[in-house]
Amino acid sequence: MPLSLSRPDLLRTQNFINARWCEGRDGRTLPVSDPALDVTIASVPDSGAADARAAVDAAYAAGPAWRAVPAKQRAQILKRWNALILAHQEDLGRLISREQGKPLAEGRGEVAYAASYVEWFAEEAVRAYGDIIPAPVSGRRMMVLKEPVGVVAAITPWNFPAAMIARKIAPALAAGCTVVAKPAEDTPLTSLALARLAEEAGVPAGVLNIVVASRERAAEVVDVWLADGRVRKITFTGSTPVGKHLARESAGTLKKLSLELGGNAPFIVFDDADLDKAVDGLMAAKFRNGGQTCVSPNRIFVHQLVHDAFVEKLAARVGALKVGPATDPGSQIGPMINERAVQKIERHVRDAIAKGAHAVVGGERHQLGGNYFAPTVLIDVDATMACSCEETFGPVVAINRFSDEMEVIAAANDTPFGLAAYFFSGDVKRIWRLAEALQTGIVGINEGALAAEAAPFGGIKESGYGREGSRYGLDDYMQTKYLCQTL
Ligand code: NAD
User: Fold this and answer.
1) How far apart, in whole angstroms, are the C-alpha atoms of residue 112 and residue 163?
2) What residues does the Aldehyde dehydrogenase domain cover (predicted)?
3) Angle at 89 between CA 197 and CA 18, to 5 degrees
C-alpha cells in the first residue's frame, strides 16, 4: 500500500543540516520498511562521519545567535511548531504507523503526546529562573544564572519515533541549545517530517540538524559527536549497553549526559486490590505499542489468593485483542518492529515453557506470520526464566505468584534496572510502604498509564539518569553559573 499524505512534502528523505535538505556526503542509502508488510517505503541517506561533522559545525555556529534570542521569542517558535504538529496529526500519525507498525489510533495519539512536550517546554522556556542569594557578608551581591549547555546530540530509539525526539529537541531549544540528532535507523521519516515543520515554524538555520544512518554506521556518526568537545551534552534513549558505551566514550570531553535506558518493570497485584482496575491498568501498560515500551510491565506478580480470578479476567481480555496491520482501523496490536524482535520474544516464551511456565493465551507467533506475535499470557513464571531477567519488549504477560509483601518487594527490586514499577492495592499504609520501597524512578499506584509532559520521566540504577518532561526536564539542558559582585 503506497504511503499517501495530505501534505506530500512531509515525506522527507534527506538529511537536514544547516536548514538544507541534503544527501549523505558519500551517497550511501538506507531503505526504510513497513514492518507489517516487509516492503520498502522510502530510501534515506546512510550518513557517515563527514555528515556528522557538518551537523556539528552548523549547530555550533548557530549557537550564539540562538541563545541570544529572548526566551519569549524562542517560546513563540516552539508554540508555532506545536501548532503545526497538531495541525498535521493525521499525516504524522500515518508516518509513525507505517514505519513503526503501531495501530493508526496509537500513531495519532503519539503525535498528540509528542506535541504536548513541545507545548510544555515552550511554556517552561520563559521560566528558566536563576536565584538571588542573600550574601553572607555585607557589600556583596550573589546571583545564579541558568545558561544553555551548548550543542546537544540527541540519539533516539524506534519505538516512539515522534515522542522520543520531540521530548529532547523541545527542552533543548527552549533552553537556548542547538541540536544535532540521529533518529533510529528503523524510523527516520517521522523525525524528518518534524524537522520540516520546525523549519516552517521558524527555527533558524543550524539550530536543529538531523542526520540519518544505518545501525552499522550509527557508531561512526555518534563517535564524531562523542569526540567533539563542542558537543556539550548527549541525550540518549535506547538500550543499556549503548547507554553505557556513550557514558564511557563521552568521558574524554566530560559531556553532560541524560540516559533513558531499558527497564524490567514489576507490576504487583495485592489481594486487597480492585481486580478489574488492575486488569485495566495492566492492559493499558502492557499492550501499548504491542508491549514495545520501556515502561512495559515485564514481571507480573499476583497474590496467590486472587491469582486465578485475576488470570481469568485477564485472559478473556488478552484473547480478544485484535492483531493486524496499522492500516486496518480495527487493529489493537501491530507487528513487532522486525524479525530480530520476534525472535527474542519467541526465545523468551520457549524458555519459560521449557522451565515450567504454561501459556493460557497465545504462546507462539501469530497466524498472520511475518513480524506478528500472538498476545500471550504465561503463568507459573519464576525468576530463573529469561522473560524475568531481560525485557521481552513484546505482547507477553509473564505472571508469577506471591504470598508475602516483603518477599514481593525483594523480588521486584531484584534487577539491575529501575525505570518504572506498578502496584495495585486498596490499603493506604501498604501504598506508602511500597511507594517508598520500590527502587525505580517512576511508580504507578493503581494506575497503568504514567507518562505525561508535566511529570519527570526517567530511571535509576542501570535504567539511566536525567529526566524528561516537567521543570526537571528543562534543567537537564542548562548549566548553573554563579556570579559574585562586590559593590
Ligand atoms: P538501541 O540502544 O539499540 O538503539 C537506540 C539508538 O542508539 C538508535 O538510534 C541506534 O541507531 C543507536 N545506536 C545503536 N548502536 C549505537 C552505537 N554503538 N553508538 C551510538 N549509537 C548507537 O535501542 P533500540 O533497540 O532502538 O530501542 C530499544 C531499547 O530502548 C529498549 O531497551 C528500551 O527499553 C529502550 N527504551 C528506553 C526508553 C526510556 O525512556 N527509558 C524509551 C524507549 C526505549
Assistant:
1) 9
2) 21-482
3) 15
How many contiguous H segments (helices) and E segments (strands) does the chain have? 15, 22
Mean pLDDT computed over every residue of the chain: 97
Q: How many angstroms separate the CA atoms of 414 and 185, rounded?
A: 33
User: What does the alpha-carbon distance between residue 246 and residue 227 come to, in Å, rounded to a whole number?
Assistant: 11
Rounded Cα distance between 354 and 352, Å, is 5
Distances (CA, A) of 247 to 171, 218, 258, 462: 21, 16, 9, 12
**What is the distance between the alpha carbons of residues 239 and 260, in angstroms, rounded to a whole number?**
8
Task: Tell me if 262 CB under 6 Å of ligand 1.
Answer: yes
Residue with the smallest CA separation from ligand 1 atom 28 is 238
> Are residues 81 and 207 in contact, defined by beta-carbon separation less than 8 angstroms?
no
**CA-based nearest residue to 261, from 418, 484, 39:** 418
User: Residue 214 — pLDDT band, cuts 50, 70, 90?
Assistant: very high
Q: Closest residue (by CA) to atom 9 of ligand 1?
A: 184
- This model of the complex carries an ipTM of 0.93
Measured distance CA(433)–CA(262) in Å, rounded: 25
417 lines ligand 1 (CB under 6 A): no
Q: Is 301 left (phi over 0), alpha (psi -120 to 50) or beta?
A: beta
Going from the C-alpha of 464 to that of each of 20, 128, 242, 353, the distances in angstroms are: 34, 24, 11, 32
With beta carbons less than 8 A apart as the criterion, state whether 292 and 429 touch: no
Q: Which residues are catalytic?
A: 260
Strands 460-461 and 417-418: antiparallel
How many Å separate Cα 68 from the centre of its chain? 30
Please report which confidence band the pLDDT of residue 389 belongs to, taking 50, 70 and 90 as the band edges.
Answer: very high
446-465 pLDDT per residue, tens: 999 999 999 999 999 999 99
